[in-house]
Amino acid sequence: MMNKIRALIIDDEELAREVIRSFLEKDDTITIIGECANGFDGFKEINEQKPDLVFLDVMMPKLTGFEMLELLEEPPVVIFSTAHDEFAIRAFEQNAVDYLLKPYSQERFVDALARAKAKLALEEHAGKALSGVVEQSREHSGTLSRVAVRTGSKIQIVPVGKIRYLEAMDDYVKLHTEQGVFLKQDTMKHYDEHLPAEDFIRIHRSYIVRLKEIVRLELLGKDSHVVFLQDGTQLSVSRSGYALLKEALGF
């Protein structure tokens, strides 16, 4: 007998979860292993239960579906659900990812489920398509107000206002914050483009600093400068970084 597909529902709206559950209960090839009302619980359940299929709401208040996926090491097959979102839908279609546009009919739901079953039958890995969706959503995210980071098996939200400076570290970015230091698999380019320009400045290829953290700038040698931060941290300043600092600080 063929094993049933193990499905997890993640949506902050109770009615939306009820709709998905009612549709799934009509399919005897599916077993619902759980429901989550937020991305934090969803992340925990995915890591612990390893579902085959996840129905994931895009916009949730505490942690968006995209933020949650960004932190998963082995994402399952996902069917997204969203209210009208031009950028999200474009990202889904370009990456051949299944999605449901709220409100949707049972017929549309069954179509999406059939495509997900086909992927599961072929044992297609979901990672590449999902990473494309996440990356496109990040590019259209506008100015960052928070960063979701993974600490062990948990997710922590770091408000941008708590970041003191960022440091490049191979394929990661180290976030130095008032709450501690966090590692995020990401690029400095992303933060350079999406952090509030009035608050942060790229002083070096390896450093982006909150302007208010800088207490002084010193010359170390010919064309060599260093900034001192409020806690005494010293960071190198490149030639281009120095030019940006001069403009930002008005000297």
Briefly characterize the structure.
This protein is of the alpha/beta class and 251 residues long. It is built from eight helices and 15 strands.
Describe the structure.
- Helix content is 33%, strand content 34%.
- The longest helix has 16 residues, at 106-121.
- The protein is an alpha/beta fold and 251 residues long.
- The protein starts with a strand and ends with a helix.
- It has helices spanning 14-24, 39-49, 65-70, 86-94, 106-121, 127-139, 188-194, 239-249; strands at residues 5-10, 30-36, 53-57, 77-82, 99-101, 146-151, 154-159, 163-169, 172-177, 180-185, 200-204, 207-210, 214-221, 224-229, 234-237.
- The strands form four sheets. The protein has a five-stranded parallel beta sheet, with helices on both faces. Strands 10-9-8-12-11 form a five-stranded antiparallel beta sheet. A three-stranded antiparallel beta sheet has the order 13-14-15.
- Helix 4 (86-94) runs antiparallel to helix 6 (127-139).
- The protein is elongated.
